[in-house]
Amino acid sequence: MVISRILPTVLVLCGALATPHAARAEVFELASNGNFVQISRPARTPEPALVPDYVGAEIVAPTQMPSPPTGTVRQHIQHAAAKYGISSDLVDAVAWQESRYNPRARSSAGAIGVMQLMPGTARTLGVTNPHDVRQNVAGGTAYLRQQLERFGNNVPLALAAYNAGPGAVMKYGGIPPYRETQNYVRQIMRRLSAISLQRNSYE
């Protein structure tokens, strides 16, 4: 969730925005008949790096899947962001990176829904039904808020903690040296930077 290569505009964005899995794995969708259907590419052989078991999956939404109700998901994102005092752009970017807004996404590691909450994390956040979009988004946003507070509103570190766990960030004193976590942070920061530049172009 590599900071030295982030453009200055992104670093500025971190301050403006401050106010959960990177192991590559198969991703499944819960079908209407109760069975799980694989929706991702086969897992690639990981690099020989030690990555915690709780790090979740990278999700890629296949083109053959029906489009999720992104309007409804984004409404929940807006509400949760306002409730927890976080930029809705940040929550939206995390939801996109985690599941492509797919409420039915589930990783082989067990992460669930739009914000890819692990069951244990969901319980600690008071989420009684992580399959419920509203609860899932609210729980993920609350967890992101916790990481922002834990790491002094440092957005890249909060994202790394969301992805790999706060313990990994504290252990390494920064973004852990996990390729997928570093890519996770890089992709979200680039998305946020692009949103910021796009808005500035209209001002």
Shape: globular
Distance between the termini: 31 Å
CATH topology title: Lysozyme
How would you write the strand order of the largest sheet? 2-1-3
Structural class: mainly alpha
- Give a short account of the largest sheet: 3 strands, antiparallel
Tally of individual helices: 8
| Fraction in helix | 40-55%
Report the strand count.
3
- Low-pLDDT runs: 1-16, 19-26, 39-68
Domain module tally: 1
Query: What is the radius of gyration computed over CA atoms, rounded to a whole number of angstroms?
Result: 16 Å
- The SSE order reads HEEHHEHHHHH
CATH architecture verdict: Orthogonal Bundle
Percent of residues in β-strands: under 5%
Determine the mean pLDDT: 77
CATH class: Mainly Alpha
Q: What is the secondary structure topology, with strand pairs?
A:
Blueprint: H1 8-17, E1 27-30, E2 36-38, H2 70-84, H3 88-99, E3 105-107, H4 119-124, H5 133-150, H6 155-164, H7 166-172, H8 179-201
Antiparallel strand pairs: 1-2, 1-3
Helix pairs in contact: 2-5, 3-8, 5-6, 6-7, 6-8
